[in-house]
Structure formats: C-alpha cells, structure tokens
Amino acid sequence: MKLVLDLLVPGIIAGVSVYGMAKKVDVYDALLQGAAKGLEILWRILPALVTLLTVVAMLRASGALELAAQALAPVMDLLGIPSETVGLMLVRPVSGSAALGVGSELITTYGPDSTIGRTAAVMLGSTETTFYTIAVYFGAAGIKKTRYAVPAALCADLAGFFFAAVTVRLLFGA
N or C: which end of the chain has fewer CB within 10 A? Predict the structure, then answer.
C-alpha cells in the first residue's frame, strides 16, 4: 500500500504527460502557460491575503480579540454557546490558520472530550474562512463588488457556529 501511495503523484504526472503526447499537445508549453496564469492570479490576490493575515496577527497581539470575547460572553451564554469559543468565532471568518491556533489552544486547555473542545472542533469543521475565501476566489475572478456574498456567507458562519454548539449539546448531553 505504501508503494502505491509513494507512486501515486509521479504516476499521475506521467499519465497526464503520456496522454498529452498521445493527443499531440506540447506538454511542456502547456505547463509553462499554466504556471504563468497561476502566477498572474497569485499577483492579483497576494495583497488581500497579506492584509488579512496582518490584521489577524495585529488583533491577536493587541489583545482586541480577548476583549471582544469578554464583551460577547453574556450573549453567547444566553445562546448556549460556550463563551470560551468567542475568540474562535471572531477569528474563523478571517483566517483559517489563526482559527486552528485558537481551536488548538481551546482543545489543549479544556481537553478534546470537553464540551468546549468538541464545540471548537465542530465549529472548525462546519464554518468557512469567509473573508479569505472571498479574497482569493473573487480576486482570482476579478470581481470587485461582492454585493450580498459577504453578508450571506457571514450569516452561514453564524448558523454554523450556533448549530455546532447545539449539535454538541444534543449528541453529548452537555
């Protein structure tokens, strides 16, 4: 099995190359054109990505995320969402890596079998890095006006956060 997995990617590359040659396609030229288009897309979306990652780092370093978590804790408790997950809920729409860091901290602190740890894990799996995704995909497509995409995606994230907590409570009786 390990041999098959080790040969999977080289096999796919070889298969695509042989197929391209059989169809009389200049495989190397097609590879160069694809790489050039990929770099063009990267050049368009790089400013948005750098900005998002910088903002998340600044918010975490300044303590603003912890302050917001403390301010929103009463509302979260009322909704049945563990208030400890507020930081995760604030970071998740902006940065997946920051959200994984926050989720990892929650799971390490409270344990993977705790209500908070389970809720954090379900939240990570059922929500999206909305602003990152919009920056990448809309930037790649050249879309400047997102119209209703951002509010709709944020509503979906809120629903994901809420139902993650509900699901954990229903399945694990927390």
Answer: N
